[in-house]
Every structure is written in C-alpha cells, then in structure tokens.
Specification:
about 80 residues, zinc ion binding, 3-stranded antiparallel β-sheet, about 30% strand, mainly beta
C-alpha cells in the first residue's frame, strides 16, 4: 500500500519505517492495517515529541495537526506510485 514513509516529502523506503498506531495501543488501538501508518524513525519520533494529531480519511489521505493547526496534508497512498 505504501512505498515510503507516509509523511509528505519523506523518501524513506517503507522497509525502513515503523508502524504508528493512529489510535494508541494503550487506548485500545488495534494492530490492524486500518489503524497503522508507516513512519520513518525521524517522523515517528517528531510526531510523539511535538504531539502531532493525525487524522486519516477512509481513502487513507491524512490531515496532520499540531496545536490544532494543520501543518501537513496528503492524498491517498496510491499517489505515491505516480
């Protein structure tokens, strides 16, 4: 589904990513694909350190907020193959 890290502009190959739970494991988030997003270590660490809020649409496009303000958006992962 993904060719690289899900963060816009990151070119880290998906084999070098970590699964991020959109709904955190400790809050009942499952390990199924609908709750996981591939992030490189750099972006995964930033997401937690800067408390990014990631909202994923049914087509897996993303809206990423920090402090309530949109800082990034993506289309669905199929656009990575273009």
């Amino acid at each position: 589904m993904y060719r690289r890290c899900a963060i816009p502009g990151c070119d880290r190959h998906v084999s070098l990513t970590e699964p991020h739970h959109l709904r955190f494991w400790e809050h009942g988030g499952g390990t199924d694909l609908s709750n996981l997003l591939p992030l490189c270590k750099h972006h995964h660490d930033r997401l937690h350190a800067e408390q990014w809020d990631v909202e994923m649409a049914p087509d897996r496009s993303l809206i990423i907020r920090r402090g309530g303000e949109v800082i990034m958006t993506t289309g669905p992962p199929t656009t990575q193959w273009a």
